[in-house]
TrEMBL record:
Pfam families reported for this sequence: Mrr_cat (PF04471), Mrr_N (PF14338)
Restriction system protein Mrr-like N-terminal domain mapped to chain residues: 16-102
One example of a Gene Ontology biological process annotation: DNA restriction-modification system
Keyword annotations: Endonuclease, Hydrolase, Nuclease
Protein name: Restriction endonuclease
Restriction endonuclease type IV Mrr domain segment(s): 166-286
Domain of life: Bacteria
InterPro entries: Mrr-like_N_dom, Restrct_endonuc-II-like, Restrct_endonuc_IV_Mrr, tRNA_endonuc-like_dom_sf, Type_IV_Methyl-Rstrct_Enzyme
GO molecular function: DNA binding; restriction endodeoxyribonuclease activity
Length: 311
């Protein structure tokens, strides 16, 4: 089978349907769309590991976007139309009984889904009255009518921050990562892992105290790598050696890039699991802690029915 990148957009969309259903089953039947997307990428060997940080620039608007979001979101929308998924609330996806009972192949699933969703696409198309029209043509005409959140604004700011991180020097990126880990309640040691040389292979070191007042040593590694250069398992092994040198119970490995699947497996081996923070997770944490960034969009809220119902 072709790898995901070499497929056309429609084939990518159809291919993603089965991994989406299978991952939701593994996640207990319900998940946020972000968690689901990460799991699909992490577990499917046909999908490149860096698709969640591989941004492209729009020729028409000049803004950055994540190409993977389009087939992923269209696959989700088709599954919802076919009654395989539900959206109990914004950003959350839930399997229906119909999906839980499905045990066929990817081709059988996409055929079953399109049998229901294609007529719905036709119904949504007010500008196309012909009996036969290619699915991709319908979508191109009706992009503004799609019931999906393709997150183009989010893609743009995430790409902007990632570009800015890549412009930092190695020393400044390590400083940035120590600041991030400090936000994660790690008390940074100012004497270990603060130099580019002679640090024993560390980008930082600190201590974390649990609610029952037990303190553990935390080793930190930071790699400002290009998106095409994934962190491999030998780097994980090297970091674990540095953890041994400083007797760290925990390890946090941060990169602007991604981790190979072998690196993920290596991080989970042995008695001390290493927490991996790739470029995609790093952007999430930067937004969460507002680390050297300032949000510009005011959050609004929609009232639930509780407030609308008569007393």
């Amino acid at each position: 089978m072709k790898n995901f990148e070499s497929m056309n957009r429609s084939d990518q969309e159809a291919y993603l349907m089965l991994p989406i259903i299978n991952e939701l089953k593994q996640l207990g039947g319900q998940s946020t769309s972000k968690e689901l997307k990460r799991n699909v990428v992490a577990d499917d060997k046909l999908i490149q590991e860096n698709v969640l940080t591989s941004f492209k620039k729009s020729l028409s608007t000049g803004r950055k976007y994540l190409p993977f979001n389009f087939p992923f979101n269209f696959a989700i929308t088709n599954l919802v139309m076919a009654g395989m998924l539900e959206r109990p609330k914004k950003g959350t996806l839930k399997l229906t009984k119909k999906a839980r009972d499905f045990h066929g192949t990817g081709k059988e699933l996409s055929d079953q889904v399109y049998e229901i969703s294609l007529p719905e696409w036709y119904t949504r198309s007010e500008k196309n009255k012909k009996e036969k029209i290619a699915l991709h043509q319908i979508k191109e005409v009706n992009k503004s009518e799609l019931d999906i959140d393709d997150g183009l604004e989010e893609d743009n700011w995430r790409s902007t921050i990632l570009d800015a991180l890549m412009q930092l020097s190695s020393a400044k990126f390590e400083l940035f990562c120590r600041a991030l880990v400090k936000k994660m309640n790690v008390d940074i040691d100012e004497t270990i892992g603060t130099k580019l040389t002679g640090d024993g292979g560390l980008g930082g070191y600190g201590y974390i105290t649990t609610d029952d007042f037990r303190t553990s040593r935390v080793a930190i590694q930071a790699k400002r790598w290009s998106l095409n250069n994934s962190v491999s398992s030998p780097e994980i092994d090297k970091f674990r050696g540095a953890m041994d040198k400083f007797r760290a119970e925990f390890g946090i490995f941060i990169t602007t890039s991604t981790f190979t699947r072998d690196a993920v497996a290596a991080s989970r081996a042995g008695t001390r699991v290493i927490t991996l923070i790739d470029g995609d997770k790093l952007l999430d944490l930067i937004a969460k802690f507002e680390l050297y960034v300032t949000p510009k969009v005011i959050t609004t809220y929609e009232l639930d029915d509780f407030f609308k119902e008569k007393n």
